[in-house]
Amino acid sequence: MDQFYQFEVDKEVKADILRWCTQQRELDYAARLRIITAMNTVISMDSSINSIELFNLSQDTVLAAERSGAYSDAAGDRLALWNQRDPDLQTNLVYLRSDREILAVHQIRRFDDKHPIALVVVHLRPYQLQDILDEIKTVQEETILVFNDQNQLIEADYGTDWSMEASVVEAVRRQLAEGDKKEGFYADQFWFYRAVSGGKLQLLLTIPNDTIVEALLPTVFTGILVAALAILASVICSVVYSRAVSRPIQELSAQMKNLTLNEYSGTIAEDREDEIGILQDSFDHMIARNKELIAQQYQSKLEKRNAQLRALQAQINPHFLYNTLQVIGGMALERSAPEIYQITLALSDILRYSLNFSREMVRLEEEVGYLESYVTIQNERFGGKVHLERKLAPETMDCLIPKLILQPLAENSFEHGLQDKTGCWQLTVASSLTGDGDLLLEVEDNGVGFSPQRLAQIRETLNQETENALRSGSHIGLANVHARIRLRSPGERYGVSIDSGPERGTTVCVRMKAVWEEGKECPTR
How many CB atoms lie within 10 A of CB 477? Predict the structure, then answer.
């Protein structure tokens, strides 16, 4: 569920949680308010959520937010279901069943050593999942069972005549989950199994054989009618043809009359090359085709169900935002508003880049592209006053750098240097390789600059320890970039440095170890 990322992405909320869970102290009023506000925001945006609980695993306490209010309490036995889980199972997104609620659980870990420090538990009403299962159900006799990664039943929509014992269901589920085939026929039922989201949820569908046969009766009757006509024709011709021809036809007719689709494996074993053989092959092909159509039909239904379940896990899909921005851009072009199209395109690029959490390190060329999209939007905001100049050494464009480090530096220029500057605003981004094998990045502006006293305060903030810098309330962008560089490139010479003076602008320099993707060699300098 994307709701969990509210607590991982929001820097202030994540810092509040880390301090509360790792420093053995109570939440102050401001931190408590920020965390509760984040919880209430998630609850208000999703009517299926009853409450959200944030457990401090080191203090055995819980901060809970409900629609009626928020409170702190001792954890007690609230984590009984979680503690019963196998510790080797995944902890990113877990579904549990508790009385009348479905619990969606996410474990927050400390960044440096991956030690678990907190647990977020979202209490969900099961009605939305029940509505989905009821909507995708094709016939009343059909039964849909949803299990979690512990093989525990989370939700079910039972058929009208369901009477299967739990032990039989578990045996079938295990056989289909562990085997190569994900469908089969057991206990006079057709069963279909699918794992959703890497096994976090398991879907087991079953439908009685009688229901399927009943649905196929028109096709079977048509086949029987064709066969009967063929038999009638063969009987008329039996006066002319020998008894050796009429006997196979009678045997084929008997098989058609007693046909059970799931037990059918072929017609008469004798291979023939005459008209009887053609009839046998055609009938076998018809039955095989019917079986394929059944499998395809139910496969399609299963894919639809999977999509519905994935929609329950991800209430907001970033691709929806990208597509919406593209629609807005297209409308702007149709209405002769190219400026709106350019801004929409730049915002779409920013969202696509910043919401991609699959990579921590990116090529400098990608980061500069993101910066250009950011400056494009700022240029529209400030009436085209900004001029971005690139002084980038070609050999540095493939260097890997931490994602999202240039934009905070440019944002610092806009906020503290350029807003009070009259005339044209100049922003320069430069890169180079030093003789020591380091990558040097510079962001320079022609803004009003800082006074010596203010510059000294900023430098003192950057010289603090990494953890203190991350908590600094002033120039958090510079402190964050400085801390991230220091974590990846330890050493006094690495990190962020700043030079500025009144009316001569500001230059922010970032120095780090130059690294490239695996398999790429360092270019000759």
Answer: 18
